[in-house]
Design brief:
The structure is a homodimer of 366-residue chains. The first copy, chain A, has 366 residues and is α+β, with helices and mostly antiparallel strands. Chain A has 12 helices and 9 strands.
Chain lengths: 366, 366
């Protein structure tokens, strides 16, 4: 069993950067995506990553930073760096197709970061779905792949519907009725293309909240809601720092009476798709693409997706200041804003990047 | 737009059988599956359903009754009957394949009940997945198809992984931040085969709870948890009858702070797969099958599914009297019990069946 998984999961990240001043969370600088990308490329190249692999990895990291999913972007580099130096992360990694059929494929990630094998897997799924109508591709022996939404976005860009899932390590989520963490925050993403530039993009962990959100609440001096985490006797934890260190997050649904067995079931489904199906050790992924033109005339599915979105956005909100959104809206808004005015990096992320650049022997230029 | 959908959804059902005595919920009689099946077949035949279609419909209804999913079994017949008499349900329905590719197909349900087109769709998905590795089949212009778990069970019986989703009518679930019901309780099911007779079967509505559960709490003289439903100002409703009549169920997650945007996103995903993708009016379905032998050696995926299940069942529970379960366990236990000692039918279901038999001109024999 590979033991490297924990080293590049978002949760451990947060434990390692402690103690961090609350001020460390505040945006300190806005950096253009181009500049940030150059910095990332220099670092990855210094680790021995090929130019192609570095470019793909940087693109998926930048996707997260542009979309406001700050927990899955360049903020991960320090942890990737540590894993690499500890020998827990293979670079360059040999990514290969283990087996392939007309509508399926199995890839091996070679024990490296997940972005490159995940990118290749989704590309394969898209190509095969165009040939057959639908395709499923799984990846074994992989690593952290950033934001799942980045891969389903590849599908919608190609005009397809896409699904992407990954398991995560180490366990941080309790099963319903249980008290020990048994599953990761296992991510699930689904996207459908729009005709109006408003793709539906659902990108979610199958837990109620992430360890990172618990930390952030604690840093901000606020308690966490009673539905996020439990202690060893099953009682809600309200202190975000305690919750994150005990690693007993609830599955989506929070409590048995509010149907946490559904979130638990979804987390177990992701585990099956990403671990039981591809085999291998540690982190795996699963991708699925469907070609809408096999079902309806060109553009009809996209128009129906837009019509659904429009109906949902137009429904009256409880609070007029908080309109009803559709999955993908917050990320799209962040992306538009950040493409224009740059990516706000917190002090702690800038310091992390400086540390990584120095440790990698490349100039720090942010 | 077809307006018939509401007539055979589980929610309206419950409104129509009111007022029903609390005693009506109690099991009044245990009936053998064979006997219950004969009664169902006689009723469906009297409506003009072909022998094949009636047999398939009865099998899927019986699946639900055997598995303890009483809300989706023969208890639906009264509502199907009413819809049929009101002209909202076409019997016999012409189910046809609209288009087909190597790994995909689109079916039209012909405005009838959903069991037959859904059964055919999953069979097609299984056959195609065996040829290509993975396949997706959607159904348009369909109706209530019973329990989604019944179709993913077809996939595991064939040794495949399966996914089945359906949208439902009328809307009963609010979007996060919204106050009007905009989506159905849209069901999502996923199954993976086991080597040990313990298939993983997740079968869930994407709402926190169903309208039926709210009614049941009210009938039992109990309030509902604050996370199930809201009133027109967004405040929790605690009276199950009020909650069910107002039709403002929360998406899985219950509240914005406990990530109801994820349940809302899943419900919208189901709507896209079952409505935007196939087109048509009213109720649609989506099925997906994956052949595990394209990924690993025969039996390896099944063993890994079993190993995951064993690890989860062995984890310590909060309450020793309430062990940790795996999706599919409660249904399997109910099935074993009911195959042995019969299906317990409540007084209200027996009276409903008597009404349907009488109205259909067939002998009542339960």
């Amino acid at each position: 069993m590979r033991t490297s998984g924990p080293l590049w999961t978002g949760s451990l990240v947060l434990e390692r950067i402690l103690p961090v001043n609350v001020l460390g969370r505040w945006p300190a600088r806005c950096v253009s995506p181009q500049r940030l990308r150059r910095q990332v490329l220099a670092i990855l190249a210094s680790w021995g990553m090929t130019e192609d692999a570095a470019s793909i990895t940087a693109d998926h990291l930048l996707y997260a930073d542009l979309c406001g999913i700050d927990s899955h972007g360049v903020g991960m580099l320090l942890h990737y760096h540590r894993a690499f130096r500890e020998g827990a992360l293979t670079i360059p990694a040999e990514v290969r197709v283990v087996s392939e059929g007309p509508g399926s494929a199995l890839l091996d990630g070679g024990g490296g970061l997940g972005h490159v094998p995940a990118d290749r897997a989704m590309r394969l799924a898209i190509g095969k779905a165009r040939e057959t109508g639908a395709a499923a591709v799984a990846v074994r022996n992989s690593g952290h792949f950033g934001a799942a939404g980045s891969y389903v976005g590849m599908a919608t860009e190609a005009g397809l519907l896409g699904l992407a899932t990954t398991n995560t390590l180490p366990p941080a989520v309790i099963p319903t009725f249980g008290v020990e963490p048994m599953l990761g925050t296992n991510a699930f993403a689904f996207a459908a293309p729009s005709a109006a530039g408003a793709d539906f993009v659902l990108d979610m962990a199958t837990s109620t909240a992430s360890l990172g959100k618990s930390w952030n609440r604690w840093r901000a001096g606020r308690s966490i809601p009673p539905g996020w985490a439990i202690d060893s006797r099953g009682k809600p934890i309200r202190n975000g720092r305690v919750a994150a260190s005990q690693r007993r997050l609830t599955p989506l649904g929070s409590s048995p009476e509010n149907a946490s067995h559904k979130g638990y079931g979804l987390a177990a489904m992701v585990e099956i798709l990403c671990s039981a199906l591809p085999g291998g050790h540690g982190v795996g992924h699963f991708f699925f693409a469907v070609d809408p033109t096999r079902f309806r005339d060109e553009g009809d599915v996209e128009s129906a997706v837009d019509a659904l979105g429009a109906r949902l956005r137009a429904t009256p909100p409880i609070d007029p200041g908080r309109p009803v959104l559709v999955a993908g809206d917050p990320e799209r808004e962040a992306r538009e804003r950040r493409l224009e005015s740059g990516i706000p990096l917190s002090r702690s992320v800038i310091e992390d990047m400086r540390t990584v650049a120095r440790g990698s022997g490349v100039p720090f230029d942010l």
